[in-house]
Amino acid sequence: MTSSEIRKAYLDFFAARGHSVVPSAPLLPENDPTTLFTGSGMQPMVPFLLGEPHPSGTRIADAQKCFRSQDIEEVGDNRHTTFFEMLGNWSLGDYFKREQVAWMFEFLTRELSLDPSRLYVTVFRGNDQIARDEETVAYWKEAFASVGMSAEAVDFSERDGMESGRIFYYDEKKNWWSRSGIPNAMPVGEPGGPDTEMFWDFGAERRLHETSAFASGPCHVNCDCGRFVEIGNNVFMQYKRTESGFELLPKQNVDFGGGLERMAAAVGDDPDMFRIDLFDRARSAVESVTAKMYGANSDETFAFRVMLDHLRAATFLIADGVLPSNKDQGYYVRRLIRRAVRFGNKIGAKDAFCGTVASAYVETYREAYPELVDKSEIIVSEMTKEEAKFKASLDKGLREFEKSFAKTGAVLGVDAFNLYQSYGFPWELTEELALEHGQVVDRAVFRDEFKKHQELSRAGSEQKFAGGLADHSAEVVRLHTATHMLHCALRQVLGDHVLQRGSNITAERLRFDFSHPERMTQEQIRQVEDIVNEHIRKALPVHFEIVDLEEAKRRGAIGVFEDKYASLGGKIKVYFIGDKAAEEYFSKEVCGGPHVENTSEIGEFHIVKEEPVAAGIRRIKAIVNASTTNS
């Protein structure tokens, strides 16, 4: 099966079992200031797992785009990627363990035709407050018995390894899920529960014996020796932490996440994820520009993997609106492209190649993610510009390196970091240049400088992204509703080309990015303020309705990320500001909430700043004076 066939088979399988198939959420989280990217299939679903009703019902399935920036340095082996697709299905207070275990076993062994004798699972061992998950073990035993296999459940022991087990009890560090970690770390009121993970065995001969950490000692499914790969994780959100311990949740949820690429590797029985079909076109493009063959030697293979992963991730991020820059999400796109260029140069890529590789990915994913086709021109353009810019920086950095070395006769760790920070010079390049000059760079000093830089960046990021809609305080809710009114007023004053391009809301202010080609005049800013304040003073009621997409469009609702609802086939939530009885509305917008019940609760609205963000994108910062509230 191809990866596209696996994706389709999964979604069809769960659609046939009553699930609404929803499209992927964007890689930039909507109204979530706690993180820069969507890093898991669960992330967009958290509000619904915590109790908010999902517009499409209690059974949901999707294929979610994910990006994990923290894995950039891990890329280069046969299994780590920064971008991946997570296949997911959810039960929101509907079915539970029995159905999920049976369905996953059926999907893996029948739909994907994976050999059940090469499947292994792990479950929660229990602790002093929560019993071991023997219920899930019983269902796994039933599943294996359905194909004539006896599945023994054993307590995992570092000393004994696999023993003769098929099902392994692991502790809370491996088989427990909550947002805050292990059970004892959970605050009162926080939900969590045991999980059960599924592993594919590539065979004992695939174990990395040459790696000293795995050359001795017993092998087991979680040892990361290269023999096993986790292909899915079923989370059973079952408990809530209380003052006295744990109690069962009134509505128990299922959250499954399985990596598409890892499933494809298992189906192909090749642990090298970069050999699956999703990389075929891009891999051929890299082979063409480097005149090298993938897999010919380990150093070149490492470089290939970095290039293939990083340029795929950058392709999807740019398509979702993240352009290379020195700040926020754009910093990671820049880093991905520059690291790919560095490794491309290392293995002989003389000509520009990023746009070519990006085009290969657009073609590969054109059916599953047609937005890549729509954005292909800007994807290739941004890739090409960033590649050219970095090559120029490389030349400047080389000159700076030679000047610094001529002055001191050494290559200091602080010099290596300055080259990295000022010119985007990778550590590896500085290290290689130093060796050519008979020097060794003090990596510890470089790491110290880098750590200081990270801490400063993290502090800045935490300040910048503090608050927002993760905080549902009255102040934030007032500003959130004001954002909808601002959006509508901007469209009245500037035109219907105005669309939201991002927002961040704290208790102190709102920040709203929108599409507009030029600076607003003072008169336009005043008009927008007046329109918003006029409708605040009108004390308009605010309510939401759950409707289907066509109904929302017919009634003139606008959507911040409307594309993600295009193939929903279910329901969406629309907030209306205005007279429901007369059906006279000032604002109609797709949104998850929350909002005030009446505009009189907002207070006086005031724009404090209007500025550029990027080409064709402007930003407004505004506040409300709650002391003038009429409620």
How would you describe the overall organization of this protein?
With 631 residues, the chain is of the alpha+beta class. It has helices spanning 3-15, 46-49, 97-111, 134-145, 172-175, 260-268, 280-290, 298-319, 328-346, 354-364, 371-374, 376-408, 413-423, 427-436, 443-464, 474-494, 522-537, 549-554, and strands at 20-21, 59-67, 83-92, 119-124, 153-155, 167-170, 176-178, 191-201, 228-242, 245-259, 500-505, 510-515, 542-547, 558-559, 572-579, 584-590, 604-614, 617-625. Strands 1, 2, 3, 4, 5, 6, 7, 8, 9 and 10 form a 10-stranded mixed beta sheet that branches. A 4-stranded antiparallel beta sheet has the order 11-12-18-17, covered by helices on one side.
Layout of helices and strands, plus pairs?
Elements: H1 3-15, E1 20-21, H2 46-49, E2 59-67, E3 83-92, H3 97-111, E4 119-124, H4 134-145, E5 153-155, E6 167-170, H5 172-175, E7 176-178, E8 191-201, E9 228-242, E10 245-259, H6 260-268, H7 280-290, H8 298-319, H9 328-346, H10 354-364, H11 371-374, H12 376-408, H13 413-423, H14 427-436, H15 443-464, H16 474-494, E11 500-505, E12 510-515, H17 522-537, E13 542-547, H18 549-554, E14 558-559, E15 572-579, E16 584-590, E17 604-614, E18 617-625
Parallel strand pairs: 1-2, 4-6, 5-6, 14-16
Antiparallel strand pairs: 2-3, 3-10, 4-8, 7-8, 8-9, 9-10, 11-12, 12-18, 13-15, 15-16, 17-18
Helix pairs in contact: 3-4, 7-10, 8-9, 8-10, 8-12, 9-12, 10-12, 12-13, 13-15, 16-17
DSSP helix fraction: 25-40%
Per the CATH scheme, the topology name of the largest domain is: BirA Bifunctional Protein, domain 2
Low-pLDDT parts are 460-468, 560-569, 627-631
CATH superfamily of the largest domain: Bira Bifunctional Protein, Domain 2
Overall number of domains? 4
Strand-residue proportion? 15-25%
- Mean of residue pLDDT values: 87
Q: What is the subunit organization of this protein?
A: single chain
Q: Structural class of the helix and strand makeup?
A: alpha+beta
CATH class type of the largest domain: Alpha Beta
Second-tier CATH architecture of the largest domain:
2-Layer Sandwich
Distance between the termini: 61 Å
- Give me the Rg, rounded: 27 Å
- Overall morphology: globular
| Total count of helical runs of at least 4 residues | 18
Please summarize the sheet with the most strands: 10 strands, mixed
In total, the number of strands is 18
